C-alpha cells in the first residue's frame, strides 16, 4: 500500500485527476496505431503487395472480432468502477470472476471456429487469389493469438475501471516494443530466428501479446492487487447470472456502436469511390490524419466513463457534472489544438502521404478544410456518451449514433452529391456532427440516464460486504489486497459497503 496520499477518482481535484488518467489512455491508443502502421511498412515494403493485401484482409476480420467484445469490455469496466466507487470489493471481485470466465470461454470458442473456417471466411470476403494463401497463414496465427488478445484487453479495461490507467499503458508499451522488434527478426530470419515471412509478422504479435499479458499478471499478483483473484477466491470464477446478463445486455449496445460507425464508413467509402481514384486517395489520406485527431476525444471519453462510474458507485453525483464539464473542456483544448495545427500545416501534413505536385493533395486540402473542425463537436458527443453510459444508459448513445450517421450523414452525402458533387460527402460530416452533439446534449440535460443501473440491483444472498479503502489511483502503486482487507473502521475512507450507496438507481437524480 503506498504510504503517501495520491489523487483518487472519487476525491481530489477533478481536472487534474481526469487529465492524469486520460493521458496514458491516449498514449495506449497512439501506440496501437503506430504499431499497426510499422507492421504494414515491413510487410508492404519487403514482402510485396500480395502480402499487404493479405494482412489488410486479415486485419479487417481482427477489427471486427475485437469490436465484438469492445462493448462487453466497456460494460466490465463500468461495473468494476461502480463497485470500487461503492467500496464493495466482493461485488468488484464477482464482476472480475464472471468476466474472466466469460472472456476465456468466448475467446477460445472464437479462436477454434476461426482457425477451422479461415479459408471459408477469406473466400466469402473475395480475397484475391494471389493473396489468399498468405492471408490463411497470417490469419490462422492471429486466431491462435486471439485468446491472449481478448484477455489482455480484458485485464487492461479491468484496471482502468479500478482507477489505474498507467499500468495498462506501460504494458502496452512493452507489447508494442516487442512486436516492432520481433517483426523483422521473424519475417527475414535474422540471427537465431527462423525465416517465416508473413507468418513471422503474425507470430511476433502473438509473442508480444502473450509476454506482456504474463508480465502484467505477474506484477499484479506480486503487488497483491485487490482484484487479482487468489486460490481461496476461486469461487468468484463461477459465473454470476445477474452480472453475466448485465455484461451482455449492456455490452452489446456499446459494441453495436462500433458496428454502426464501421458499417457507415464502408458505405461512405463506396460513395467516395464514385468520384475517381484521385478523390479516393485524397479521402484515404485525410482519414489517416482524422484517426489521430479523434484520439484525444476517445481517450477523454473512456476516462470520463471510468471516473464517473466510480463516483456514481460512491453516490457523488455533484462530481459527475463537474467531471463532464472537465471532459468537455479537455476535448476542446486537445482536439482543438490538433485541428488548429493541421489547418496551419494542412498541405505539409498531407505531403507526408501524397506527392506535393499531384491532384490528390489539393482535393485532400479541401476535404480537411470542410471536415476537420467538426471533430471538435463529435468529441463533445463522445464525452457526453462517456458520462451517460457510466450509469448503464447504453441504448440512447446507440440510437443517436445511428440517427446521425445512417439517417442524416449518409442520405445527405448520397442525395446532394448529385447536385454539388463530392463536396456533399465532406459537408455530411459537419452536418452529422451537429445532429449528434445536439441530440447528446438534449439527452444529457433531459434524459433519465441518472436512473439507469448496470450492476444487478439485489446483492447476492449469503455474501457479506467487505471493507474497502480508497479507490486505486492512476499509478502502478495500486492498493494491495492485505491493506484493503485490514482497513479499520476508524479510517474515514474505510466504510462497510453495506452502509454506502450500492446502485445508481438508488440515487435521487440531481
Automatic annotation (TrEMBL):
It is found in: Cell inner membrane. It comes from the Bacteria. It comes from Cupriavidus basilensis. This is MATE family efflux transporter. The keyword Protein biosynthesis does not apply. NCBIfam families: matE. The lineage of its organism: Bacteria, Pseudomonadati, Pseudomonadota, Betaproteobacteria, Burkholderiales. The keyword Transport applies. It is a multi-pass membrane protein.
